[in-house]
Amino acid sequence: MTQPSVKRPTIREVAALAGVSRGTVSRVLNGGRWVSEEAESAVRDAITSTGYKPNPHARSLATNKSNSVAFLLTEPTDTLFDDPVFSVLVRGAAQALARRGQSLVVLVAGTAAEQARAADYITSGHVDGVLLAYSSHSGSQLVTELVGAGVPIVAFGPPVGASRSLGSVASDDFNGARRMVEHLRDRGRSRIAFISGPDNTPGGVGRLAGYQAVLGDEFDANLVDRGDWSPRSGAAAMQRLLGRTPDLDAVFAANDQMAAGALSVLTAAGYRVPTDVAVAGFDDTNIASTSSPGLTTMRQPFDQICAEGVRLLLDLVAGGVPATITLPAELVVRQST
Amino acid sequence: MTQPSVKRPTIREVAALAGVSRGTVSRVLNGGRWVSEEAESAVRDAITSTGYKPNPHARSLATNKSNSVAFLLTEPTDTLFDDPVFSVLVRGAAQALARRGQSLVVLVAGTAAEQARAADYITSGHVDGVLLAYSSHSGSQLVTELVGAGVPIVAFGPPVGASRSLGSVASDDFNGARRMVEHLRDRGRSRIAFISGPDNTPGGVGRLAGYQAVLGDEFDANLVDRGDWSPRSGAAAMQRLLGRTPDLDAVFAANDQMAAGALSVLTAAGYRVPTDVAVAGFDDTNIASTSSPGLTTMRQPFDQICAEGVRLLLDLVAGGVPATITLPAELVVRQST
DNA sequence: CTGAAAGCGCTTACAG
DNA sequence: CTGAAAGCGCTTACAG
């Protein structure tokens, strides 16, 4: 037996109570321009006394704006979603949007079926734009489709591929990686290995390039291996590196998770960290402060990244042009180096 | 210069092309009952040839259903959101909802202002119901308000407080904790410490009770300390425990994060894990498999939890009554015990 | 099984 | 500054 709940008040009730037309109420609701002071205050009083709240669907229907955006995840497995970066981005984006009266819909689209559904959902008008989380090739077809449909999109991470039509926000991977390698050198390390992310991945490219840039002539391909961002892959890469270059005295992984994986392999193999081998990561997610020893890492300014990403996207929705924003990463030194 | 994009086809175009009324198209769209085969196929053809997609806002306005639910986070800080459990729940809930044609809106409401905004958002009709993530006292006022407004709610975690009006889904904390303590005893441990979550917290209560139940007469209050779920708090609790009961030979934390914090303190203090002290957690989040040594833990069946939570909530939205579901947790043994 | 019509609750030119 | 009215794109009794 549901409550015979009284019907919610509509703009009609408010108008009647305030003694004005519905149009006037609407104008008050939408900024209050072209409304006399008396009318405005009468309307505001009527709103509070009736407890009126605008029906968002009616509004969206009339304006053809949903006032919400999608957070689109196109990675296939749990591997990447488990990445703490995602929860930080989701939270940050939701908060930044809320401040502007917009909301965030989470779309998980790893499988082909999910991607088809996501494309449908997005192009149906449920959302005004899309925040793209670390999308690599796995989502490229979907992204291409969305771009073709004219959907405003901003990617977290450096632009890849169709960058002309996408906005993007990222931390400065190149200089961040350089900074970390310099830090390791300052600590007296000379055989610095690098565990990169997957090829062609946002983030993967720039960090490797930064590493190479500092090493210059000393660059040794044997000191470089690759993971897929997961801790497990970092551990495997570390194993291979130890086999190939047992004289390494530092390892810098392109994210914290792989660094943590590398750390556990080193520990298990009897190396002391940082005495024998220094370990460094990238991101400064909670895994960095949690592992023992604590992980030295480059902190991505996630709050800023989210705020700028949201701003960029809403600009695009309002008819602006795509921009690319790069923000500096900051060195955070802990016990591992 | 925006594309002078052709207007999207509406139900009107589809009806015209199919040679039927808009009502008939609508019936096809909504299940196809009371529609002749010829009419149905004509409509379907018209839909594909026009590329028609229903406008969700028009539909919501007419049906008074939003077809989306909120994922509400009422914890104040980053501490808890950093908890990997959240990203798992968000992802799982979003996927379970997508399968049913519904979507998930993320609402972060830690501050009072955010909670007021969230209440407004929810009661405005943006969503049909709420998935409540691990809400303790911090969100109780908001929850009370929502319950009062008749909003369907399902909580992740065992019911606390106003359980009569909320549905809930949780893993079996009590028996899960019992199982873990028994495992530690099987491993020959006799001085088993426990790090609990905050008082009155869903999850915190049952796990502590399970621990106590196994120990019975041997229960020693000195072996129990408390954290706030964060790694840092687990480390602090471990420190206190070591000071108070240096003879402990195992520590069981109520979640993986606190276990990881405890682990790092033990390691730093020169204890060998598990030789000197065994360490166990709860949840089986990625932190458990990442730490070294790997953490023995109780795995929560998150996929099931999400699926059941969504089912329950949609039932409630459809007029059902609140139910409480408890799912078994599973022991996962790694190197730390 | 099907169509005509009312209704969902807003917004927005258009006159004044 | 304000009201009357059309329009946004669906759904759903109601007749037939």
Task: Chart the SSEs and their pairings.
Two copies of one chain form a homodimer.
Chain A: H1 11-18, H2 22-29, H3 37-50, H4 56-63, E1 68-73, H5 78-81, H6 84-99, E2 103-108, H7 112-123, E3 129-133, H8 140-148, E4 153-156, E5 167-171, H9 173-186, E6 192-196, H10 204-215, E7 224-226, H11 231-244, E8 250-253, H12 256-268, E9 278-280, H13 286-290, E10 297-299, H14 302-317, E11 324-327, E12 330-332
Parallel strand pairs in A: 1-2, 1-3, 3-4, 4-5, 5-11, 6-7, 6-8, 8-9
Antiparallel strand pairs in A: 10-12
The structure holds a DNA duplex (16 and 16 nucleotides).
Describe the structure.
Two copies of one chain form a homodimer. Chain A has 337 residues and is an alpha/beta fold. Chain A folds into three domains: 11-54, lambda repressor-like DNA-binding domains (434 Repressor (Amino-terminal Domain)); 68-171 and 302-329, 3-Layer(aba) Sandwich (Rossmann fold); 173-299, Response regulator (Rossmann fold), CATH 3.40.50.2300. Helix content of chain A is 45%, strand content 15%. The first copy, chain A, has 14 helices and twelve strands. In chain A, the strands form three sheets. In chain A, strands 2-1-3-4-5-11 form a six-stranded parallel β-sheet, with helices on both faces. Chain A has a four-stranded parallel β-sheet with strand order 7-6-8-9, with helices on both faces. In chain A, helix 10 links the parallel strand 6 and strand 7 (224-226). The longest helix of chain A is centred in the N-terminal third of the chain and has 16 residues, at 84-99. The mean pLDDT of chain A is 90.
